[in-house]
């Protein structure tokens, strides 16, 4: 990486932007001294324009060489002829520089305000927590941060509270309960900014906020999220070790006390849908349970996942229809119509158990059974083409269309108090 | 012209090579994490979905995905991969021999077109269009019968598929030829990881490799599917070009397959190679190995692709040895 930066600096400083298209970096493994000697000879062929990032020194050490495109064929023929083993380390240097440029441009400045923040990129935990603090600082009359608990690894579980008055009923959104579903946390950030932007401008949202508080937990599983950045992009669960097993983590969406232990969840700690040793055993889940119970006046609860493009209502643990199924179904239909109106993204909707799969111990089954009628789960974009690895340039379109559905749900909640 | 052609799967080789005793080394070096626990079986209620099915619910959708995998094994290429757009109608019935047969009416789109918009920078993207990125190409209407057998040991579903206007969609023969020519060159040594990367990026150059991996993965996904699974390819962990022998372009893919109901991502390694020869009969051989005890069974998966129309059919008839004794080369 340093080498690339050095090269970039060198060339950019010296010339107008040079292109490195189809240039490659080869890693060569010489197997004896004779081959090392040959490689040294090769390095002396100036017309080839080679740059040895690691010089040929000894057969136990790899030799890395930057090969401009015009010399590629000759070098490979040379290596093959002499039966010198190599593989391509960097297939196209220009691609790599482009990628790096993109990343550097995105992170060129640490944002000084939420207006600077890059909503069209994925961010790590620190950046998201900084965003939250900035948002609160910029909108202290509207937004505050509540810490509802600590994750297993002692990270704060932060919830943004949007409120214009005291003792209001509330609406809850959470994103990122499954850490690999990156478009959800990214959308959560966008929702937060959208709320502060639209309050006082959009009459519907303003009316909602004048009567309800909105609670938004953007990184609901911060340990898992940090792990997706540092070790395993596909990590889903929490990061709590399981006693008696080498496997880590509990599925936080199977850990709720609603049909806990039933079909569609697993008793095996090594599985992705492991329910945990007992309901609410995960601090990330318990924190929300405690918050919901102590608040006592939440009227809508939306838990956001990806992928599949679905809007789902209870139940997941039983095929017995929810008491309010008809109303929930109609509202889902309306919400999806709003969503689709923006970019023509197709969603399906229905109860969890019929539409996606049986799942017991799920979040919204519990919240529904607590009396929060408008309990919904989203599965955001896409339908499997990129799956969890949704390109960053789809973050904002996804957030925008989803917001329309959330507005439909909030509006209905507002118009149908209970 | 040399092309990737339509594909059929020769299962006979699998029967000829029964799984050896556990002590025997599989012929391919299969690497990967051991398979995690299998998906949880679903309730009796779910099993009983027969008659007319709600098209947006999972039983119909899973069957349609199976038909999609089948479609991609036959008509996929580095420039064409189909995705499910919508299920219009579905029904299911239990069959006498045991098993359930689904009848489906659904639409698919080609993910291959629309790749031009895939990697626009956000500025370019938003300045030109508010078009969504996840719909690509016109829709094709298809009908399929999908039979999930009920056997002691899992066996692959059987699919019969018909799509309207399949042969009218724009041929990708030129792109396929260019792709083959580019990478068959002796200099070529493609080697890449993480497609897409964590941020969903796929470079222009890697797009055909992603699609090819997806097509090859369709063989595995098709074979492994049941009424309790719903597979997608989560990513290509790596692609490594192997040394070509003669005219064979050989690639090794390691892919991650994601199953929706169990939420498991399975790792699979497969090798894929193509032979394009002057008689315009091309053989796309997919040798599939996966971690776990199914590795040897998988080793026998062989695919032979033949030109859709024209001289190759005659040529193929004259060259029975190519097709009746499928070659399993490593």
From TrEMBL, chain A:
Catalytic activity: Release of a C-terminal amino acid, but little or no action with -Asp, -Glu, -Arg, -Lys or -Pro
Family matches, as SUPFAM superfamilies: Protease propeptides/inhibitors (SSF54897), Zn-dependent exopeptidases (SSF53187)
Domain Peptidase M14: 121-413
GO MF terms, alphabetically ordered: metallocarboxypeptidase activity; zinc ion binding
Protein EC: 3.4.17.1
Cellular component per GO, a single term: extracellular space
Family the entry assigns: Belongs to the peptidase M14 family.
PANTHER family: CARBOXYPEPTIDASE A1 (PTHR11705:SF94), PROTEASE FAMILY M14 CARBOXYPEPTIDASE A,B (PTHR11705)
The protein, known as: Carboxypeptidase A1
Organism: Cyprinus carpio
UniProtKB/TrEMBL annotation, chain B:
PANTHER family reported for this sequence: LATEXIN (PTHR28591)
UniProt-listed Gene3D superfamilies: 3.10.450.10
GO molecular function, a single term: metalloendopeptidase inhibitor activity
Span list, region Disordered: 21-55, 309-330
Any one annotated GO CC term: extracellular space
Polar residues bias: start-end ranges: 321-330
InterPro entries hit by this protein: CYSTATIN_LXN, Cystatin_sf, Latexin
Domain called Cystatin LXN-type: residue spans: 49-171, 191-296
Keyword Signal included in the entry's annotation: yes
Organism of this sequence: Cyprinus carpio
The entry's keywords: Protease inhibitor, Repeat, Signal
Name of the featured protein: Latexin
One Pfam family per UniProt: LXN
Similarity annotation: Belongs to the protease inhibitor I47 (latexin) family.
């Amino acid at each position: 990486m340093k080498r690339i930066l050095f090269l970039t600096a060198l060339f950019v400083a010296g010339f107008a932007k040079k292109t490195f298209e189809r240039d490659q970096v080869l890693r060569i493994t010489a197997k004896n001294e004779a081959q090392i000697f040959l490689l040294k000879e090769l390095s002396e062929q100036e017309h080839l324009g080679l740059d040895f990032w690691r010089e040929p020194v000894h057969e136990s050490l790899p030799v890395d060489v930057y090969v401009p495109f015009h010399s590629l064929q000759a070098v490979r023929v040379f290596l093959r002829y002499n039966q010198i083993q190599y593989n391509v380390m960097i297939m196209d240097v220009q691609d790599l520089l482009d990628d790096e440029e993109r990343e550097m441009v995105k992170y060129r400045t640490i944002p000084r305000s939420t207006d600077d923040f890059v909503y069209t990129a994925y961010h790590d935990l620190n950046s998201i927590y900084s965003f939250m603090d900035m948002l609160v600082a910029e909108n202290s009359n509207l937004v505050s941060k509540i810490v509802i608990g600590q994750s297993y690894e002692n990270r704060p579980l932060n919830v943004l509270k949007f409120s214009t008055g005291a003792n209001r009923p509330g609406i809850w959104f959470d994103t990122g309960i499954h850490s690999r579903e990156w478009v959800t946390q990214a959308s959560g950030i966008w929702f937060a900014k959208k709320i502060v932007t639209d309050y006082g401008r959009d009459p519907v949202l303003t009316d909602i906020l004048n009567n309800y508080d909105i609670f938004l937990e953007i990184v609901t599983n911060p340990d898992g999220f940090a792990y997706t950045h540092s070790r395993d992009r596909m990590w889903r669960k929490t990061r709590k070790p399981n006693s008696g097993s080498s496997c880590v983590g509990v599925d936080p969406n199977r850990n709720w006390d609603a049909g806990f232990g039933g079909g569609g969840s697993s008793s095996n700690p090594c599985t992705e849908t492991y329910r945990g040793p007992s309901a609410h055993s995960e601090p990330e889940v318990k924190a929300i349970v405690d918050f919901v119970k102590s608040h006592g006046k939440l009227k809508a609860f939306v838990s956001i996942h990806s992928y599949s493009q679905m809007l789902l209502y209870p139940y997941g643990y039983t095929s017995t229809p929810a008491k309010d199924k008809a109303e929930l179904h109609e509202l889902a239909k309306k919400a999806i119509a709003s969503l689709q109106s923006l970019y023509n993204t197709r969603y399906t909707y229905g109860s969890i158990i019929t539409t996606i799969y049986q799942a017991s111990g799920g979040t919204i089954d519990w919240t529904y059974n607590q009396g929060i009628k408008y309990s919904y789960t989203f599965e955001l974009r896409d339908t499997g083409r990129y799956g969890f690895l949704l390109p960053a340039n789809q973050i904002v379109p996804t957030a925008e269309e989803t917001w329309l559905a959330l507005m439909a749900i909030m509006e209905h909640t507002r118009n149908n108090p209970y | 012209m040399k092309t990737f052609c339509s594909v059929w799967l020769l299962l006979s080789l699998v029967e000829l090579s029964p799984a050896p005793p556990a002590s025997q080394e599989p012929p391919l070096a299969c690497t990967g994490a051991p398979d995690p626990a299998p998906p949880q079986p679903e309730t009796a209620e779910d099993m009983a979905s027969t008659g007319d099915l709600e098209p947006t619910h999972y039983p119909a959708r899973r069957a349609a995905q199976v038909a999609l995998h089948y479609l991609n094994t036959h008509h996929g290429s580095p420039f064409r991969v189909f995705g499910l757009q919508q299920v219009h109608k579905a029904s299911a019935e239990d069959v006498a021999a045991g098993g359930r047969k689904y009848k489906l009416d659904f639409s698919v789109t080609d993910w291959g077109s629309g790749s031009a918009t895939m990697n626009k920078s956000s500025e370019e993207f938003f300045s030109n269009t508010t078009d969504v990125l996840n719909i690509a190409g016109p829709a094709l209407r298809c009908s399929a019968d999908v039979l999930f057998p009920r056997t002691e040991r899992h066996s692959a579903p059987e699919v019969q598929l018909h799509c309207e206007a399949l042969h009218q969609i724009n041929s990708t023969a030129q792109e396929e030829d260019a792709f083959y020519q580019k990478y068959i060159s002796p200099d070529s040594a493609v080697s890449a990881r993480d497609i897409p990367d964590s941020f969903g990026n796929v470079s222009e150059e890697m797009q055909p490799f992603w699609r090819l991996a997806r097509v090859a993965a369709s063989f595995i996904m098709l074979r492994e599917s049941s009424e309790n699974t719903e597979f997608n390819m989560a990513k290509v962990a790596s692609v490594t070009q192997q040394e070509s022998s003669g005219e064979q372009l050989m690639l090794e893919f390691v892919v991650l397959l994601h199953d929706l109901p169990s939420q498991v991502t399975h790792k699979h390694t497969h090798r894929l190679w193509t032979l394009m020869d002057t008689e315009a009969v091309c053989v796309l051989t997919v040798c599939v190995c996966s971690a776990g005890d199914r590795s040897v069974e998988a080793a026998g998966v062989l695919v032979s692709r033949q030109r859709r129309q024209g001289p190759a059919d005659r040529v193929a008839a004259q060259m029975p040895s190519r097709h009746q004794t499928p070659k399993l080369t490593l």
